Structures are given as structure tokens and as C-alpha cells.
Amino acid sequence: MSGARVSIQTADFDLAREVAALRAGDSRVGAVCSFVGTVRDRNDGSDVASMELEHYPGMTEKSIEAMIDEAHRRFDILGARVIHRVGLLQPLDQIMMVAVISAHRGESFEACEFLMDYLKTQAPFWKKEQTPEGARWVDARVADDAALARWGITASNV
After folding, report:
1. What's the CA angle centered on 7, arms 5 and 13, to 5 degrees?
2. How many CA atoms does the CB half-sphere of 24 hold within 13 Å?
3. Fewest beta carbons less than 10 Å away: which of 32, 89, 116, 124?
4. CB-based burial of residue 93 (10 Å sphere; 0-12 exposed, 13-18 middle, 19+ buried)?
5. Positive or negative: CA dihedral 13, 34, 46, 121
């Protein structure tokens, strides 16, 4: 795999193009697993008009690179790509994607799920939703920490 493994950007992305670049020219690839997260129009019982994501440049990329390194240590994967958007997003907009390639599907599925659980709790992003009640910061959830714990990683975000 050539190219960046992590991109933090305001622009939207094309999943098909990203997957094609990730697996380009690698005849060992037998499986691709991907996940795309989108902005919902409801959260915690309230309508969501928009979501704004902030991050700490440099720290965010380094943190996600370390997550990908850990996925490589745990699973027999050939490559991974993470894109996360920042800035103002609307319902239905793509927020992020994880794509993983491997020789066999099991490793791709597991590594993709591992990266999602890790990103959800440990990536340094701050999310603010605009609701009819006003702006509110999105807090971490106990369920997200529990999902990460099944991989043997303890987090205390709540």
C-alpha cells in the first residue's frame, strides 16, 4: 500500500476511490472491509441540525497512526486507511471511513471493527451538535468504552 494511511480533512471522500487506491496492485488482497459513518438527524432524543467536529492537528493523526499500527500487530492485515472529516457537517454527510485489506475476510472484519471501537473512544475529536435546544458537546458513552474493553483496552471516557 502506498500513500497516506490517515487523512483529517474538511472535504468529502469517495469510498470506492479510497478502496481502489488502498488495494491497488496488491495481488495478495483477498478481502476488503470498510465502514462509513454518517451524521444522523437525531441523537439522544433530539433533532440534530448539524454537527461540528474539531481536532488538534498533528496529535490526531499521530493517535490514529498508532491505532493502525496496533491493528497491524493484532491482525494479519495488509493495509488500512482512515479518513475523518472535521468542520461543519449536515445530516447524511459522511463523517469518516475505515477500510482494511487482508488476504482473508476474517482478519479484515476484525481489524475494521477494532479500529472503529478504538477510534470511537480514543481519537482526539470534539463534536458539537446543533439542536432545537441549542448547541451541545457530544459526550463519550459507556457502551463505547465497553466495546473497546472487549479488545483488552481499558478506557475511561465517561
Report:
1. 110
2. 11
3. 124
4. middle
5. negative
